[in-house]
Amino acid sequence: MHAHDLSRLAEQIKQWGRALGFAAVGISDGDLAEAEAGLLAWLERGFHGEMDYMAAHGTKRSRPAELVPGTVRIISARLDYFPPAGADPHTVLADAQAAYVSRYALGRDYHKVLRQRLQALADQISAAVGEHRYRVFTDSAPVMEVALATQSGLGWRGKHTLLLNRQHGSWFFLGEIYTDLPLPVDAPEAGHCGTCRACLDVCPTQAIVAPYSLDARRCISYLTIELKGSIPPELRPLIGNRIYGCDDCQLVCPWNRFAQTAELPDFAVRNGLDGARLVELFAWSEADFNERLAGSPIRRIGHERWLRNIAVALGNASPSPDIRAALSAKLNHPSATVREHVVWALARQSAGH
């Protein structure tokens, strides 16, 4: 294809992306040399914790052409997810007997939603240019999506390490199409965090150890989602009522005043999880958990971690006979991990913290 045709195709790709529900689409060349150095330093410090997959693929994560041979461009896309009709997150966080679930997980599993639309975009490209080599990614392979999105002009990396955009804040998902089409690339956007350190100061566990540096081992999202075993006792009181993920660094970010709510019905709140009561969720059997959370990203942590997380939140709630009764009912749970956290929570309840 001639340069003019490639330029026109790039504009068409962005138009097609917007028609599919993406807030924006950008294109980069995938040169991640600087990001690779940062990744290696982060891994060297052990900040990835038990997320062994972060180190398992060598340089494939930071060298797109090693992951997908022939790749010369990466098409990055943003998809807004903040639910338009959910309970106010600040209100939920302030209610110690309510369960806080990260806003991204209140609706349908984003992997499926994002992948379907990215595949539809790839299909449109194929229909326009014929056969070409590409691969679609939705947080499902070793891809440095924030670095790629930054390169493609979709925003800049905030001090909390998430991508920020002046018109959309940070409440969005990212997805990529690796392609062998030599499309024209977009200019990266400069950072706009300035001297602000709101995200660093608000983090309950001080997981953001420095601007742009996150120790995942202290991050509540890691502790409630990625960590498979016991949550460190010293961090449990800091988790509060957050049972799946944490949004504090996003909730305090000034740029999220401009964030857009999700247009897709897929991200509407399901099962009343935008402010459900801890005691009610703790009573769910494994069958309840699997049935009610079918199609939800939460289901992947399993019922055991679900109960572990809620037990911690119940231990952090104000002392209550209902909470003590709910916890006592799980003292003989088959899981040693659940029992350990229940015993801890009961001790907290008995001591009135």
Automatic annotation (TrEMBL):
GO terms for molecular function: epoxyqueuosine reductase activity. The keyword Iron-sulfur applies. [4Fe-4S] cluster 2 binds at C203, C219, C246, C249. Monomer. The gene is queG. It catalyses: epoxyqueuosine(34) in tRNA + AH2 = queuosine(34) in tRNA + A + H2O. Belongs to the QueG family. Catalyzes the conversion of epoxyqueuosine (oQ) to queuosine (Q), which is a hypermodified base found in the wobble positions of tRNA(Asp), tRNA(Asn), tRNA(His) and tRNA(Tyr). Keywords: 4Fe-4S, Cobalamin, Cobalt, Cytoplasm, Iron, Iron-sulfur, Metal-binding, Oxidoreductase, Queuosine biosynthesis, tRNA processing. It is found in: Cytoplasm. Cob(II)alamin binds at R61, D139, L163, L174, S221, C246, D247. NCBIfam families: tRNA epoxyqueuosine(34) reductase QueG. [4Fe-4S] cluster 1 binds at C193, C196, C199, C253. Binds 2 [4Fe-4S] clusters per monomer. TRNA binds at K228. The keyword Transcription regulation does not apply. This is Epoxyqueuosine reductase. Pfam families: Fer4_16, QueG_DUF1730. Pathway: tRNA modification; tRNA-queuosine biosynthesis. The active site is at D139. InterPro entries: 4Fe4S_Fe-S-bd, 4Fe4S_Fe_S_CS, QueG, QueG_DUF1730. The lineage of its organism: Bacteria, Pseudomonadati, Pseudomonadota, Betaproteobacteria, Nitrosomonadales. Its cofactor is [4Fe-4S] cluster; cob(II)alamin. Its EC number is 1.17.99.6. Residues 181-213 form the 4Fe-4S ferredoxin-type domain.
